């Protein structure tokens, strides 16, 4: 019984780069299999043979039977069948997807790839058998069971008329018929064996003119076998390899498959090699020709070709060329001195053959040059090591199914299928259920990347770079391909977003960079990408295409598939690594998009060159454009493509395209207008991506119904007509497509169509709220937040603590201003009038400090800060948060030094202005820094460290002022100058702290950003959070004028908050209490101990309240603290106003009892402020803006805060004098308005990831009415 073996060597002559990962081959074991197993195999074979003329494609049942025995199969879910009038529900689709992925998981190999049939062409196996027959290795390499299965295959795919086609579904051709007839003869079949099949085959050949009408490739194979004369071949001179490379016809400029086939052909032609003339060969000379062999006109035979084979007729210029070479050049090269040139050419050819062999581990680029190279190595030396190294790799190309053993078009399609399979499974959004499957697939992708360029001078060998590329099959094969690299890169990037516990460690970023380098290097000047290399010559070179059977083989043309795959991969890469070669990536994408648009057909389709055909090409065309944001609503190209696809939809709901579309280049339905699961899936994927559901979802529902109903009982999908193609005319099998693409299409359908209106679904939940009640974010983003990995690390705590020192400086400068204004020496030096008023006991209690100069001492800081924050915004955005923090520290130090050394009022004011600049830079950067560094679930608490540091700064300032007031006459200088110490700490912190990941990504340093994020979160599994940052950065970088952008309607809620929240914060009146606490305590009769009372009581209460806020803000939420704090402040302010109004006149002093009572309510007021508006007035604005307007929004917040602080500072003493105790009622009224505003208009932001914050506005009862719709 046969057994498929995976990732094994088994021969000392095998070479490998990755321990044979991806290798697949069949081995016969006579002792394997139970009677039931053997019976199942025979039943599959018989069923195929009985139906071979109806269903020409095998279903890969032998592999499926083996894996069903080896792999654990979970219970199959019930099959779903949907009536024509039934709705397609999400449950139906999910059930179908689970059944499909469950089954597909069972046929995954242990090394992570999905093995499968990659046969189809009927001219491959003959080359192998002819070569093995010539070299005498037929019976050594192939067992009797191999030969039996090969004969089975050839008989199974013989057409009813007796001939064989170019491929398994094609009509009979001379090329296929002669070669397969010869193959059967070499495999031991007699001229009249096979129950008449051999005779029928021979009759077809003779009735269509005999073997002289075979194509040029067939002539070559018959010539080396000895059943055709070399003089009947058009010349294949190896001297072409000696031409200078600048000539357009140099083979190095040809498509690699073309040159690698004609390279060994030219070697064999140059030598005129003919194998041993056996009795079978002599018999074939009699069987294949309509006239005796010695009477054949070989010169005439050179240009003969059966009409059934003639896909690409030779143009006249080609006939002239071959005749000239045959009649004139070849006679010269066959004799001295021309023979010397011939020998040199042959040596050059074999040198290139060996290079190809060695750098593909003797797999070679394809099956044709594989066996030709092997033959050349034997011709050069029958006992050579090279020939022995070739032999075990033969099995890499052989595949067994119920139709027999075939030779595949490659050594498999392992990487190609696996890349698609990964994307399909991820599209289902059922990742967690298939973690082991994805983990194995991920391992395969990582193990299959090409890690090195080929050795030597690549130009000499005409090779492109390959380091970082992904091949079509295996790493041992090694040839780089543009779309395989793109699909491999896409798969690797998608898997990097999934937690590593599910899919394993992500691929190293350097390897991704290498892949991007390969893709960029393969782009042609017109923006398109070809397959293996750049397009090196001109389309007119197709005039010398000698292969009558194939079209467009001479040069490597750019294709929509390769170009689209490159666009999609680069877009995905740019999201995760936006800074890597940004200009080149952007230019590559832009040029590629233009290319795709330029080659679209007038009917809206794209021709698919590598699968059937217009549905395939149009899927790629649409997906490439969709990747850059184009849809059928904003792109005429996408709209036309959708119209084209919809026009081809069948009554069944599906699409079914014949391989005739490929060769005729005109869309052709399958016979009987049948639908095909693969064509249907491609059309669905294109339409879903284009946004068809927003226009009319019914076509997608019908297509989904067809796919669901097509699924088989075991979860597999049926094998229908052949779907792969190459060179326009030859079909090839992609056995995995029947599983991959229906799963992918239904997955996209489920996630993007049945659930496409995610936000409206959230809105339906929010509609359950009571009118006027704001709703938390849980329904919107908790699910996203839960995907964020990591923990609270010591690193993030230390980082936030050091950054929050900026708040300490800010608080110190607020507190110290009140402290020094209570010192007589300071007032006598700079504000003598105030000093005089203070000295007169009869002075009005409310008016004794009413002096505009003293007010300016305080307010100048805020006005300077307002100006500075507008400057700080572009610095923060373009140079990073730390740049602004360092600038703030430097300004603080300069200001502190100038203030401490002031000898006059202008100098004092200059120092305050410099400190104001520090305030502007610091308030702009530090809250944003804290919000971006902190985890989403602790952002409120960690951000509140800024307010805590501020309160500690105020407390420290008051204590320093209390201590220095006795140091006359220079104590005030020490108080003002002490601000330099925390400023120095903050500046040093700016040098040693890490920049925020968001800022690094925004500035193109994505790799560093990820490293910092991993360190902050204490884990490498930061894919989801990192992706959100990258997405936000991508949008941010598209916004060149953030202050202009912030005025857009979509940012209206955040802009309102940026203006009103800091305004309300200042209008609480707390600044007045904090700025003038010592003055107020003196005014209220506390005398010389006023500063001590202020320092201890106010400072302690502020610290306590801020600690309460830190503990509760991420548990209770922002709204609960703001509302409770607001109510407490209103009550306290009213009581304070009443006490002052009744018991504290213009020239009175409070009694001790009322003084204590007043202090209690002032402290309760400060307590309410400290756990609510104090910290949250900074926290909320710093977290609600999207990245593209975050720095601008923070600038507006700080500017408004400082402007209001300036206004209050400048007017408070005047208002205190004019309104007296009524000023507290004014602030109470302001806090009442604030509290009502919060209750109705501020949504909860607790726990919302910072890059997902914009979602909360779309579900708020009021703001969703203001925001523009998606269409707007």
UniProtKB/TrEMBL annotation:
Enzyme superclass (EC): isomerase
Keyword Isomerase: yes
CDD domains, per the entry: MFS_STP, SQCY_1
EC number(s) from the headed UniProt entry: 5.4.99.8
Superkingdom of the organism of origin: Eukaryota
Any one Gene Ontology molecular-function term assigned to this protein's record: monosaccharide transmembrane transporter activity
Membrane-spanning segments: 792-812, 854-875, 882-903, 970-993, 1055-1079, 1091-1113, 1120-1142, 1154-1174, 1195-1215, 1221-1242
Keywords (A to Z) from UniProt: Isomerase, Membrane, Repeat, Sugar transport, Symport, Transmembrane, Transmembrane helix, Transport
SUPFAM superfamilies tied to this protein: MFS general substrate transporter, Terpenoid cyclases/Protein prenyltransferases
Pfam families reported for this sequence: SQHop_cyclase_C (PF13243), SQHop_cyclase_N (PF13249), Sugar_tr (PF00083)
Record PROSITE patterns: MFS, SUGAR_TRANSPORT_1, SUGAR_TRANSPORT_2, TERPENE_SYNTHASES
Topology of the protein relative to the lipid bilayer: Multi-pass membrane protein
GO cellular component: lipid droplet; membrane
Family: Belongs to the terpene cyclase/mutase family.
UniProt cross-references to PANTHER family, sorted A to Z: LANOSTEROL SYNTHASE, TERPENE CYCLASE/MUTASE FAMILY MEMBER
Protein name in UniProt: cycloartenol synthase
Organism: Arabidopsis arenosa
């Amino acid at each position: 019984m046969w057994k498929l073996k995976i990732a094994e060597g088994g021969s000392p002559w095998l070479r490998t780069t990755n321990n044979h990962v991806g290798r697949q081959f069949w081995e016969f074991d006579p002792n394997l299999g139970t009677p039931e197993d053997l019976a199942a195999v025979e039943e599959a074979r018989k069923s195929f043979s009985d139906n071979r003329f109806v269903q020409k494609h095998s279903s890969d049942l032998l592999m499926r039977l083996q894996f069903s025995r080896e792999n654990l199969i979970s219970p199959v879910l019930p099959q779903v069948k949907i009536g024509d009038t039934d709705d397609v529900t999400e449950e139906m689709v999910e059930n179908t997807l689970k059944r499909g992925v469950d089954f597909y998981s069972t046929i995954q190999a242990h090394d992570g790839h999905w093995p499968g049939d990659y046969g189809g062409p009927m001219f491959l196996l003959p080359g192998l058998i002819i070569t093995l027959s010539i070299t005498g290795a037929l019976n050594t390499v192939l067992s009797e069971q191999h030969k039996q299965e090969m004969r089975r295959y050839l008989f199974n795919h013989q057409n009813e008329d007796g001939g064989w086609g170019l491929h398994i579904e094609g009509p009979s051709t001379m090329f296929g018929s002669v070669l397969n007839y010869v193959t059967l003869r070499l495999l031991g079949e007699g001229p009249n064996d096979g129950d008449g099949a051999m005779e029928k085959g021979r009759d077809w050949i003779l009735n269509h003119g005999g073997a002289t009408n075979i194509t040029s490739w067939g002539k070559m194979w018959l010539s080396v076998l000895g059943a055709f004369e070399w003089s009947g071949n058009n010349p294949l001179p190896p001297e072409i390899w000696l031409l200078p490379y600048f000539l357009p016809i140099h083979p190095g400029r040809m498509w690699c498959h073309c040159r690698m086939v004609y390279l060994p052909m030219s070697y064999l032609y140059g030598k005129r090699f003919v194998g041993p003339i056996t009795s079978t060969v002599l018999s074939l000379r009699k069987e294949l020709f309509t006239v005796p062999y010695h009477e054949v006109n070989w010169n005439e035979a050179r240009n003969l070709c059966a009409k059934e084979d003639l896909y690409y007729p030779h143009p006249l210029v080609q006939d002239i060329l071959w005749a000239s070479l045959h009649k004139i050049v070849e006679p010269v090269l066959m004799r001295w001195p021309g023979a010397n040139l011939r020998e040199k050419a042959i040596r050059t050819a074999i040198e290139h053959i060996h290079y190809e062999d060695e750098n593909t581990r003797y797999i070679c680029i394809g099956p044709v040059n594989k066996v030709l190279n092997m033959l050349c190595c034997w011709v050069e030396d029958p006992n050579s090591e090279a020939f022995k190294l070739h032999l075990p790799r033969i099995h890499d190309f052989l595949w067994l199914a119920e139709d027999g053993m075939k030779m595949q078009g490659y050594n498999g399609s392992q990487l190609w299928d696996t890349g698609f399979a990964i994307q399909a499974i991820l599209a289902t959004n059922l990742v967690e259920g298939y973690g082991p499957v994805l983990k194995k697939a991920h391992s395969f992708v990582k193990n299959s990347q090409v890690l090195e360029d080929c050795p030597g001078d690549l130009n000499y060998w005409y090779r492109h770079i390959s380091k970082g590329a992904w091949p079509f099959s295996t790493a041992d094969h090694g040839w780089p391909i543009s779309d395989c690299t793109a699909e491999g890169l896409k798969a690797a990037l998608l898997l990097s977003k999934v937690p590593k516990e599910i899919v394993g460690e992500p691929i190293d970023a350097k390897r991704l960079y290498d892949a991007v380098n390969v893709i960029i290097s393969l782009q042609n000047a017109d923006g398109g990408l070809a397959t293996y290399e750049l397009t090196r010559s001109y389309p007119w070179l197709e005039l010398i295409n000698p292969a009558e059977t194939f079209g467009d083989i001479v040069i490597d043309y750019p294709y929509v598939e390769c170009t689209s795959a490159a666009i999609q991969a680069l877009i995905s890469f740019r999201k995760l690594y936006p800074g890597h070669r940004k200009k080149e990536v952007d230019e590559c994408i832009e040029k590629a998009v233009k290319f795709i648009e330029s080659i679209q057909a007038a009917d809206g389709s794209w021709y698919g060159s590598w699968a059937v055909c217009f549905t395939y090409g149009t899927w790629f065309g649409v997906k490439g454009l969709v990747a850059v944001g184009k849809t059928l609503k904003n792109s005429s190209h996408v709209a036309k493509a959708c119209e084209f696809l919809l026009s081809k939809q069948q009554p069944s709901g599906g699409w079914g395209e014949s391989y005739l579309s490929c060769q005729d280049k005109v869309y052709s339905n399958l016979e009987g207008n049948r639908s095909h699961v693969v064509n249907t899936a491609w059309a669905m994927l294109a339409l879903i991506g284009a946004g068809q559901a927003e226009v009319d979802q019914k076509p997608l529902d019908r297509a989904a119904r067809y796919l669901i109903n097509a699924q088989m009982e075991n979860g597999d999908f049926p094998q229908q007509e052949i779907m792969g193609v190459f060179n326009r005319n030859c079909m090839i099998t992609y056995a995995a497509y029947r599983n991959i693409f229906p799963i992918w299409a239904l997955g996209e359908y489920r996630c993007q169509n049945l659930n496409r209106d995610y936000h409206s679904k959230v809105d339906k939940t929010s509609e359950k709220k009571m009118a006027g009640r704001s709703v938390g974010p849980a329904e919107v983003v908790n699910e996203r937040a839960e995907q964020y990995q990591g923990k609270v690390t010591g690193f993030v705590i230390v980082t936030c603590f050091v950054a929050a020192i900026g708040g300490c400086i800010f608080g110190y400068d607020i507190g110290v201003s009140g402290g020094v204004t209570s010192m007589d020496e300071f007032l006598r030096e700079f504000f003598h009038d105030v000093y005089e008023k203070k000295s007169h006991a009869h002075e009005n209690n409310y008016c004794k400090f009413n002096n505009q100069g003293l007010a300016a001492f305080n307010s100048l800081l805020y006005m300077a800060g307002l100006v500075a924050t507008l400057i700080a915004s572009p610095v923060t955005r373009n140079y990073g948060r730390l740049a602004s923090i360092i600038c703030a520290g430097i300004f603080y130090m300069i200001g502190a030094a100038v203030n401490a050394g002031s000898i006059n009022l202008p100098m004092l004011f200059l120092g305050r202005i410099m400190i104001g600049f520090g305030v502007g830079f610091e308030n702009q950067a530090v809250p944003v820094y804290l919000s971006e560094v902190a985890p989403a679930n602790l952002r409120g608490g960690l951000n509140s460290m800024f307010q805590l540091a501020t309160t500690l700064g105020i407390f420290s300032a008051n204590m320093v002022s209390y201590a220095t007031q006795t140091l006359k006459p220079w104590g005030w200088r020490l108080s003002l100058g002490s601000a330099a110490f925390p400023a120095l700490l903050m500046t040093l912190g700016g040098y040693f702290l890490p920049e925020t990941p968001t800022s690094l990504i925004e500035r193109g340093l994505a790799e560093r950003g990820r490293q910092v994020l991993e360190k902050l979160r204490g884990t490498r599994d930061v894919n989801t959070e990192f992706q959100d940052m990258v997405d936000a950065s991508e949008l941010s970088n598209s916004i060149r004028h953030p202050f202009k952008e912030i005025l857009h309607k979509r940012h209206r809620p955040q802009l309102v908050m940026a203006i009103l929240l800091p305004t309300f914060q200042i209008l609480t009146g707390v600044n007045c209490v904090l700025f003038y606490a010592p003055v107020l305590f003196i005014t209220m009769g506390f005398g010389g101990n006023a500063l001590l009372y202020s320092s201890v009581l106010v400072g302690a209460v502020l610290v306590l309240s801020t600690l309460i806020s830190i503990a509760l803000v991420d548990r209770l939420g922002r709204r609960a603290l703001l509302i409770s704090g607001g109510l407490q402040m209103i009550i306290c302010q009213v009581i304070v106003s009443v006490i002052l109004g009744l018991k504290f006149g213009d020239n009175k002093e409070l009694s001790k009892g009322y003084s204590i009572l007043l202090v209690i309510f002032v402290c309760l007021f400060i307590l309410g402020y400290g756990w609510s508006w104090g910290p949250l007035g900074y926290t909320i604005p710093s977290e609600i803006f999207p990245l593209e307007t975050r720095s601008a929004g923070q600038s507006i917040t700080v500017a408004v805060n400082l402007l209001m602080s300036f206004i209050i500072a400048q007017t408070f003493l005047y208002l205190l004098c004019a309104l007296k105790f009524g000023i507290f009622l004014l602030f109470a009224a302001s806090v009442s308005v604030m509290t009502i505003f919060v209750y109705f208009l501020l949504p909860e932001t607790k726990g919302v990831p910072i890059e997902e914050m914009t979602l909360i506005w779309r579900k708020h009862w009021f703001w969703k009415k203001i925001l523009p719709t998606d269409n707007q």
